[in-house]
Amino acid sequence: MIISILLGFIAAVVSLLGLKCTNVGLSDEDEKMKVAVTGGFLFILGGLCSMVAVSWYAAMITAQFFNPSYTGTKYELGDALYLGWAGSVLCMLGGILLTCSCKGKEKQKYSANKYRYSAGQAAGQQQIYTTNAETVTSSKEYV
């Protein structure tokens, strides 16, 4: 559980540094995305550590409760365990959403001949330019 708390704190700090709205640390958007994804993975790992700790304690309580030869105080599953499970799920869900929301930039191919412009056309005619580099002189031809 202590490792989960430490991972959650480190994940929060790393995720804050990876946000697009912060100017602390990195200024490159791709590097910020990688830092935010790292924070998301740390949140997922912290949630898993918390889930293991809470589930392990619940299994120990259940085993002691149903053991007839156990003479100590018998405990039942309480609100703290349910809150621990809910917190673990929310931490993992937040890490998954943070990781999935960061996507890389797609490289756009720049083509100088994408739009064709003909300056020698008559000034009175309307010109419509399309992406496949053909000039259409009437709006009826375009449709």
From TrEMBL:
One of its GO terms (molecular function) is structural molecule activity. This is Claudin-19. The chain crosses the membrane at residues 37-59, 80-98. Its main location: other. Keywords: Cell junction, Cell membrane, Membrane, Signal, Tight junction, Transmembrane, Transmembrane helix. It is found in: Cell junction, Tight junction; Cell membrane. GO terms for cellular component: bicellular tight junction; plasma membrane. It is a multi-pass membrane protein. Gene3D superfamilies: 1.20.140.150. Residues 1-18 form the signal peptide. Belongs to the claudin family.
